[in-house]
Amino acid sequence: xxxxxxxxxxxxxxxxxxxxxxxxxxxxxxxxxxxxxxxxxxxxxxxxxxxxxxxxxxxxxxxxxxxxxxxxxxxxxxxxxxxxxxxxxxxxxxxxxxxxxxxxxxxxxxxxxxxxxxxxxxxxxxxxxxxxxxxxxxxxxxxxxxxxxxxxxxxxxxxxxxxxxxxxxxxxxxxxxxxxxxxxxxxxxxxxxxxxxxxxxxxxxxxxxxxxxxxxxxxxxxxxxxxxxxxxxxxxxxxxxxxxxxxxxxxxxxxxxxxxxxxxxxxxxxxxxxxxxxxxxxxxxxxxxxxxxxxxxxxxxxxxxxxxxxxxxxxxxxxxxxxxxxxxxxxxxxxxxxxxxxxxxxxxxxxxxxxxxxxxxxxxxxxxxxxxxxxxxxxxxxxxxxxxxxxxxxxxxxxxxxxxxxxxxxxxxxxxxxxxxxxxxxxxxxxxxxxxxxxxxxxxxxxxxxxxxxxxxxxxxxxxxxxxxxxxxxxxxxxxxxxxxxxxxxxxxxxxxxxxxxxxxxxxxxxxxxxxxxxxxxxxxxxxxxxxxxxxxxxxxxxxxxxxxxxxxxxxxxxxxxxxxxxxxxxxxxxxxxxxxxxxxxxxxxxxxxxxxxxxxxxxxxxxxxxxxxxxxxxxxxxxxxxxxxxxxxxxxxxxxxxxxx
Length: 646
What we know:
Number of strands: 21
Mean pLDDT: 93
Radius of gyration: 25 Å
CATH topology of the domain at 241-512: Alpha-D-Glucose-1,6-Bisphosphate, Chain A, domain 3
Distance between the termini: 44 Å
């Protein structure tokens, strides 16, 4: 049968119905000796029905580690009969999509085994321990159990939560159990048909180099899954008990700087919370209950559901995702709306203004509030002072607001910029951990760790990205929406105690430092052709950088993919295709491809003086950014034909 399929595939390739890379990968796939019945029957159906476009989607590339690990479709655009299995009437098939570019049994097993092989080789620890967690997505629990099963066959101890848990809790638990690695099954806020695999090192951080490349080598070296000898007695996974949740919650509570602010929040404010059908429901209500926060969960979004039936996209960056929560807030007379994405690492929020309307905060605004509140409070509390301020640090990605830099300059604390991807912030935290000289770091109290950092290393105030990810403590090495929810309530409580809303507090920050405004523009190009278009656009801007925009001349151009760049601590920044342009009048543009979605991203920045009034500065900045985005879209159209913008 394979020879007949290969003949049809070769014919389709000769007739230009298949991409060369798809043809190459399909030939390799057919050579596997361990193809399952579902794989064989699905491939036969797609080839015989001449679903070449679907085969291109499934085979034009192999999944590889990016800024978010591995992500891909786990439900095909066309679902085969074999994939449907015993679920013909259900929109969710019984089996994941077949293909080298899909999240399925084969790729998940390879990723888990590749990770374990590398950890065993690099760390030389026995028994090897790996923590596994998952979100509410389709096949997430299935993939988690599959990982535990295959790890057990090579004598690796697997630790699973009893149900869904968030990405930050996975990161924390790796450290808490002193495990050698972690696996998070999630595709964050991607569409319902996607899923993913994020790999973590023993420090609780996502894999950075050289670890990521070494894991990829191990995965590529796996010629056949049947090449792994099974142990006579397979290890059963360990199911974590309630003490795992309690340990994580206590770690989150160490972030509270002003207990009185939390008390004020409980008395003066009401919160509407939505987990958007994801993991936040496991922890955030417990945190709010423990601290007397008055809140209500959006009932229809409290139930874990990988189909995310109440939203177009479960992304708290999108105001539409919080629409049901805002509606409930208006009905209940609430003050704040908080939403977290399915894997609980990003938090979005909306705040009631003086007119009683809800204003959505951007990720840049949320992080600016965190950075200013935590830094100013640490000075007020006497923890930071003029003698040790240089030992404290704020960390942000290059594409995050420069207002954080201004805050750092004002308080004379450090500000370090990293590439996009919280793993780079996590790598900095490991550096600071090693610098402070404490043996068995996590066994020391939070206060002992902070004192050592301020003396010998660097004390992490907080870190954040414009894409709604923040962290305010190094007990976790990833962004943490559970902690962010508690932090935002604390800040709102402090503001309320000083007769301010969060919007008032934000305006005070702008009045002190100037108005900083940002806009993220994206263009989506799906599939293999889209991937080539994204590469073409990046190449065009790299080879022919714009000389000006809207009359503002270019002052500088940095190519992070070809030039060496060092951060403010003297560390070499890893090479990545990211282009940065600075123009006259405080205008800045950064262009990069998304590491997790088929998008190219344009980050636009401007800043305005508030001497003539804050509202005038806001209007001026908004108009400029909108005009610039319009000009940019036209510029892209000139560089390529027919882009689809979004």
